[in-house]
Specification:
22 helices, 0% strand
Length: 483
């Protein structure tokens, strides 16, 4: 199959998954935020943030290492089977150790909400059984997408059936954790035929994977610090309600981000394969195109958030969560920073085995985030955590850009940034002025502002002769013609 077609197809599956991940919360979140109070949702987010540390230990860096290792051997069925099972044995060993530590922690150190912590263990068990690295490595994104979509639909139905009162936040946690575990179990049904025969454990061969996974485990720890630790610190230094506000703001921004970064897992496998072959020209071409796309899409998403959130939040979350609006606006720049760091870090550094530079970048972000959290959360609560997150993500991206500057055509890639920035700034000012002059109900204003922003942004990009805009527009037109 043509490589471009394969990438486009896998990206389409990943986008379908991300759209589902956006649509499902659009259905469930307004219901949940009205049935459950901020404290219950805060407990859910806080306990999940704690179990994430044990999930990190159970994964031991195999998520990124595994997909890269599988991509290197995917054309050899026997090596593929051997590599898959050896990496799974590493996960099983690490997961068992992590499970024992987690149960010990819950029984000895937890006094409040012990039942919630025990339910969250299902997420840890799900991470042990997660074999997504195999399907990402062989570029079978359709199976991942179908699995996830099916589980999300079932979980959504269960939320509406069983979450009825404020005290049902425990049921809400159970549904989410069971859904995650079910999703991981389902993937085992789709194992490729060559991998269904269990590989006999050869400990010398299994242990050979640990150094590689540990190289990626250290940066994963750092990433966890500034992705999860902020919620833990808000819960400790402020209140569980503030955790809920911060978590909801993060969810909205990450929903938008997921559409932009859906290309990441697809490109990781493809670039890993090209790196193994030494095909630098193809890598440079792919990376330049992806950079243009994520910059174009990220700036558009930021403008959409800025022009719609003051109307969207009251309708979506309800009045109890109105403060989420300001947090979303503060956090929104991470759309650009994370889309870039996803490209430079995950899609370039990992395939080229630049683990040291990758680790340096995320450790820098973790240190900055932790120090700013200590300084800002006690005084500004969730708002302080939001500022710390933006600064940390900027630092990660800056370090990565410096690290990869001699490996990719960074200077020529950045020539597209002024066009997208000018288009975004123009549309932001236009959208703001227009929303001040024209007033409808909140729902109508969300739809109206989005339509205006999208139309003007595309027109501005056309005026500025943006290549990625022309490419996207031509693809949309060809799809419409076929329909």
């Amino acid at each position: 199959m043509d490589k471009k077609v394969s990438i486009a197809r896998n990206y389409a599956y990943n986008v379908a998954l991300q759209i589902t991940n956006i649509l499902i919360p659009f259905i469930t979140t307004p219901y949940v935020t009205r049935v459950l109070d901020p404290t219950g949702l805060g407990i859910s987010a806080f306990t999940l943030s704690v179990v994430q540390y044990f999930i990190l230990l159970a994964s031991l860096g195999t998520a990124l290492y595994g997909s890269r290792a599988i991509a290197y051997v995917r054309t050899n069925p026997e090596d593929l089977r051997k590599t898959f099972w050896e990496i799974f044995y590493v996960k099983l060993f690490a997961g068992t150790a992590s499970s024992l530590l987690y149960v010990g922690f819950v029984l000895s150190a937890v006094r409040q909400y012990r039942n919630v912590y025990l339910i969250q263990y299902l997420n840890l068990l799900g991470s042990i059984l997660d074999i997504s690295y195999l399907f990402q490595g062989i570029e079978e994104f359709k199976k991942i997408a179908m699995r996830s979509i099916g589980v999300r639909v079932v979980s959504t139905v269960a939320i509406f059936l069983f979450v009825k009162r404020e005290s049902d936040f425990v049921v809400y946690v159970l549904i989410s954790a069971l859904g995650n575990l079910l999703g991981q179990l389902v993937m085992w049904m789709f194992l490729p035929k060559g991998c269904r025969r269990v590989q006999k454990a050869n400990w010398r061969s299994i242990l050979s994977h640990i150094p590689g996974s540990l190289k990626l485990f250290i940066p994963m720890v750092a990433i966890q610090i500034y992705v999860v630790l902020d919620k833990t610190m808000v819960g400790i230094l402020s209140s569980k309600s503030e955790v809920a506000y911060y978590d909801m703001a993060q969810k909205i921004v990450k929903m938008a981000l997921s559409l932009v970064t859906a290309i990441g897992p697809v490109m990781l496998s493809r670039v890993s394969s090209l790196a193994a072959k030494g095909d630098k020209d193809s890598i440079d071409r792919y990376i330049s195109d992806v950079f243009d796309f994520v910059t174009y899409a990220s700036i558009f998403m930021i403008v959409v958030l800025f022009t719609t959130m003051r109307y969207f939040v009251p309708v979506f979350f309800g009045e109890k969560f109105y403060g989420v609006k300001d947090l979303i606006l503060v956090i929104s720049p991470i759309l650009l920073f994370i889309s870039w760091s996803n490209l430079f870090g995950v899609q370039i550094m990992i395939p080229f085995k630049m683990e040291k530079q990758f680790t340096l970048s995320v450790v820098t972000g973790a240190v900055v985030n932790f120090l700013l959290n200590l300084l800002l959360i006690p005084r500004y609560a969730a708002l302080g955590a939001s500022v710390a997150t933006v600064v940390a993500e900027f630092c990660v991206t800056a370090v990565q850009m410096v690290s990869v500057r001699n490996r990719i055509p960074l200077k020529s890639m950045f020539r597209v940034v002024p066009k997208h920035a000018l288009a975004g700034t123009t549309v932001l000012v236009f959208g703001y002025v227009l929303s001040e002059l024209i007033r409808f109900g909140n729902i109508v204003m969300v739809i109206f502002n989005f339509a205006v922003v999208a139309s003007v942004y595309v027109l501005m990009e056309c005026f500025l002769k943006s290549k990625i805009n022309s490419f996207i527009f031509s693809k949309l037109m060809s799809v419409l013609k076929r329909l």
